[in-house]
Amino acid sequence: MAAAGAGGGAGDQLTVLGAWASPFLVRVRLALHLKALEYEYVEVDLKDKSDLLLAFNPVHKKVPVLLHGGKPVCESMLIVQYLDDAFPGYGPAFLPADPHDRAVARFWAAYVDDKLLSSWVGIFATTTEDEKTEAVDRTLAALDALEGAFRECSGGKGWFGGDGVGYVDIALGGFVPAMNASEPTTGLKILDPARTPLLAAWKDRFCALDAAKAAMPPTERLLESGKKRQAELQAAAQSNK
């Protein structure tokens, strides 16, 4: 697939290895679309990992992987930083120029993965109601912290990056499709306007972005995939009893 282009030489060629439902892939595709960079997308079957993936990410054997002129860059947020460095002048700069502001952005982007993601995944991995309640409480506490971070980082504007989409917006935005798809099955509204009004409004702005629409997988397909995965987990739990 291609967005409006950057450069035409073979050394400028961009290829993304990914799995369609991956929130980490959403981050990379979002960053590429925001910078209007052309790229080829290659779908990877994570149950039968291709030689291509194993060759370019032999350490973690995970997606996404960005190939730039045949050279690999792994891990979604490292790819986002790489695009900032490798393509100055294309689209917005995702990380701020001020060193302290850059450090703050990196801190909150890491918080999304270290605290929010780990707690949220726990909701689906639990086997008892008490465990689920605990995971929900941790998730909501992480969202409360991110609500405060948004208030501080945005300076009253529409994005964590202020006037435009920045590094933390991309980190959190990768999970928006999965959040939307999870609500019917969990009954938990992840970004509730009553609890996190700033983040709820942020999500509406995010979903309205053309770059986000191009990067996000269909909610209906994610919902069906989630139901299938949940059924598999329940069947496995029953067989282990």
UniProtKB/TrEMBL annotation:
* Domain GST C-terminal, residue spans: 98-233
InterPro entries, sorted: Glutathione-S-Trfase_C-like, Glutathione-S-Trfase_C_sf, Glutathione_S-Trfase, Glutathione_S-Trfase_N, GST_C, GST_C_Tau, Omega/Tau-like, Thioredoxin-like_sf
What this protein catalyses is:
RX + glutathione = an S-substituted glutathione + a halide anion + H(+)
In alphabetical order, the GO MF annotations are: glutathione transferase activity
Q: What is its EC number?
A: 2.5.1.18
Q: Which key words tag this protein in UniProt?
A: Transferase
Q: Where is this region: Disordered?
A: 220-241
Cellular component terms per the entry's GO annotation: cytoplasm
* One GO-annotated biological process of the protein: glutathione metabolic process
Q: Where is the composition biased (Basic and acidic residues)?
A: 221-231
Taking every annotated instance into account, which residue ranges of this chain make up the domain GST N-terminal? 12-91
Q: What class of enzyme is it?
A: transferase
Pfam family for this entry, one: GST_C
Q: Which SUPFAM superfamilies match?
A: GST C-terminal domain-like, Thioredoxin-like
Q: What family does the entry list? A: Belongs to the GST superfamily. Tau family.
- How is this protein named in the record? glutathione transferase
Which organism is this protein's natural source? Lolium multiflorum
